[in-house]
Design brief:
4 strands; 3 helices; Alpha-Beta Plaits; 37% helix; 4-stranded antiparallel sheet; alpha+beta; globular; single chain
Length: 131
């Protein structure tokens, strides 16, 4: 029987009660677990963020979003393990309806001078062709 590989996205919020270093240890624990059981497409660490409302009497948490591809049994086990861990305040794993691909890095804006240099020769050629 052929194994079905689906794309998933998992987001979890880690408590900052024991400090940001302890939160990063928990993040590394779960990202390592995902990497050992699935193909990681992208990991986005949003870092320390303020909540819209208090969760377990806390106002901030450490956010992480992981996009990965795996068999259908792994996300349920991942969700179960995140719910057991007391340092994880909230966790959600969803199946994506599209194929997960890594997002390209943000490119530096092109300088206006470089654009003007590229446009000027093209304008000169067009003027020469018109004559």
């Amino acid at each position: 029987m052929e194994k079905v590989i689906n794309s998933y996205e998992g987001m979890f919020i880690v408590s900052l009660a024991n400090g940001e270093e302890a939160a990063k240890v928990t993040v590394n624990k779960f990202t390592g677990l995902i990497a050992s059981n699935a193909e990681v497409v992208q990991i986005d660490e949003w870092g320390k963020r303020r909540f819209a409302y208090p969760i377990e009497d806390m106002n901030e948490g450490y956010y992480t979003v992981v996009t990965f591809k795996s068999e259908s049994a792994f996300p349920a086990e991942l969700q179960r393990l995140m719910n057991i861990d007391e340092s994880v305040l909230r966790a959600m794993v969803i199946r994506l309806e599209y194929e997960a691909v890594a997002k390209p890095a943000v490119e530096a804006p092109v300088a206006e001078e470089a654009v003007a240099e590229e446009v000027a020769p093209a304008a000169e050629e067009a003027a020469a062709d018109a004559e």
